[in-house]
């Protein structure tokens, strides 16, 4: 599936995905350091990283939606929608984590919410990997099986 939204002949969506992915990874690292006894400021830094990651993630998702709108092949469109759903799922989980953090005075989280944050980061990484495979024209094996063994 080739990207239609381009700047200087480079696809925009893969570039935009890296910003929220990095911000979410930094939020997890800040939260880990906070849980291991670091300064309380680390919880606030993680909170603001999640906010910035959500804004960047929405922009990346919109760019991906523009790409999917112009795909004519039904199987490729289905895979593009799956890519978007994976990314939106990760964004929703991070948004819920953000809403739960608002209640805390220092924006810190506990161990249980940290595990959920790790799972959301893993889902984000999987979504980026899946989008990368689709962008290079090599759908993963589970996607090829669902689409009749074709590559996109």
- Rg, alpha carbons: 17 Å
**Helix coverage percent of residues?**
over 70%
Q: From the helix content, strand content and strand pairing, which structural class follows?
A: mainly alpha
Number of separate helices: 5
Please summarize the sheet with the most strands: 2 strands, antiparallel
**Termini separation:** 5 Å
The low-pLDDT segments are: none
Gross geometry: elongated
Care to describe what's here?
By secondary structure, the protein is mainly α. The protein has one domain (about 5-145). The protein contains 5 helices and 2 strands. It has helices at about 10-35, 40-70, 75-100, 110-135, 140-145, and strands at about 5, 10. Strands 1-2 form a two-stranded antiparallel ribbon. The protein starts with 5 loop residues before the first strand and ends in a 6-residue tail after the last helix. The relative contact order is 0.16.
Features:
5 helices; two-stranded antiparallel ribbon; 3% strand; 152 residues; mainly alpha; 2 strands
Short description:
The chain is an all-alpha fold and 152 residues long. It has helices at 12-35, 41-69, 74-102, 111-135, 141-146; strands spanning 6-7, 10-11. It has a two-stranded antiparallel ribbon.
Give the helix/strand layout:
Layout: E1 6-7, E2 10-11, H1 12-35, H2 41-69, H3 74-102, H4 111-135, H5 141-146
Antiparallel strand pairs: 1-2
Helix pairs in contact: 1-2, 1-4, 2-3, 3-4
